Amino acid sequence: MTEELAFNSKHTIAYEANARNSIPTYDMLFSMIQSYFRVQLGEKEASLLVVGAGGGNELSAWGPSNPKWAFTGVDPSKDMLQMAMHKSVQLGLEDRVKLIQGTVSDIPLTDSKFDAASCILVLHFIKDVQQKLELLRTIKDKLKPGAPFVLVTAYGDPAEAELQDRINVWKSFFFDVGYDASKLDEMGKMIMNISFIPEQQIEQLLQEAGFTNSTRFYSTGLFAGWICHAE
Ligand SMILES: C[S@@+](CC[C@H](N)C(=O)[O-])C[C@H]1O[C@@H](n2cnc3c(N)ncnc32)[C@H](O)[C@@H]1O
Fold first, then answer.
1. Ligand 1 centroid vs 105 CA: distance in angstroms?
2. pLDDT band with cut points at 50, 70 and 90 for residue 11
């Protein structure tokens, strides 16, 4: 194994395990989104924009069983993109996968608009609400009218006890796989460093960005998912 492959394997295994500890329904989430996209996109060839494609899980979940889908993944992290590239090659998807290191604004203006897009577990890493809105707007501008968009993000009002209750639920997922109590207390404090906003505000941002018919289809622990469509 080359040094690069060893790096990728080690990080991929750690990332995969952590995602599934944090979100026990992680794999089901991808399958639910696939169902919706399949109905929306039908049998024709389709182009999908994957925002935050690092790790490559959208590619491995949807690529092999949807041979007519082509993916453009964007992610600012070189390391995360290496994992995505590694997975694409392993699964023989590289002819249908284009990866761009950067953000949605780095997609060439000459590229055609996309038939669908996802932004999974990215928005809560953006602290500023105006920047969250900007990201959603740039995604909307890259989509064909009516195209489906799926947003999955942490949500909640940091001032409300309800979020603390959900953090306790989230910690219990890790407790059950063997994390010790002191580590969990530390994790409970650390998680507050991500940017939580209430779900009403997320729905408002989607609307302001130009998405319609937003509906919350998914929720597990700290995270929830919305399906909507570009105007
Ligand atoms: C927790 S990972 C989620 C990866 C993948 N979507 C999944 O569900 O497995 C978050 C990813 O978002 C990327 N990211 C952060 N800010 C971003 C932005 N403005 N645009 C695109 N990706 C971003 C990070 O580099 C990281 O790879």
1. 15
2. confident
Is the CB–ligand 1 distance for residue 122 below 6 Å?
yes
Q: How far is the CA of 218 from the centre of ligand 1 (A)?
A: 19
Q: Is the CB of 118 under 6 A from ligand 1?
A: no
Distance 53 CA to ligand 1 centre (A): 6
pLDDT of residue 50: 98
Report the separation in Å between the CA atom of 120 and the middle of ligand 1, taken as the mean of its atom positions. 7
Residue nearest to atom 14 of ligand 1 (CA): 52
Going from the N-terminus, what domains does the chain have, and what CATH number goes with each? 3-159+196-230 (3.40.50.150)
Q: How confident is the model over 123-168, as pLDDT tens digits?
A: 999 999 999 999 999 999 999 999 999 999 999 999 999 999 999 9
206 Cβ contact partners less than 8 Å away, ≥ 6 residues apart: 136, 151, 214, 226, 228
Does residue 1 have a pLDDT over 70?
no
Give the predicted TM-score (pTM) of the model. 0.96
Ligand 1 neighbourhood includes 99 CB (under 6 angstroms): no
